[in-house]
Design brief:
Elements: H1 6-18, H2 24-29, E1 33-35, E2 41-44, H3 50-58, E3 62-65, E4 74-79, E5 84-89
Parallel strand pairs: 2-3
Antiparallel strand pairs: 1-2, 4-5
Amino acid sequence: MGGYYLALGHAHLISKVLDYGMDLQEAIDLPRVMPTSNETRVEAEHTIDGSTKAELERRGFTFTPAEEPIGGAQAIRIDWENGTLTGASEPRKDGIALGI
């Protein structure tokens, strides 16, 4: 994740794992939206769910299709009790989650 999406992307990923109990790969795979300079317009990836888009539109947001993937992520979760690492990597771009 980089650029304008950096902070939002990290918050989104951490929230999906800690608040919603998703595993790392599920959280990384989710469609992404990003605010634009227009207060009610968001850029959205084409994979956004229709019901999610409809709810955001009901709340007054409009959409611009993303021309390319929004952000990119690799993550490793450490399970200290079991001594294991679980990695997940971005399907939209090149990358690898590597724990040594």
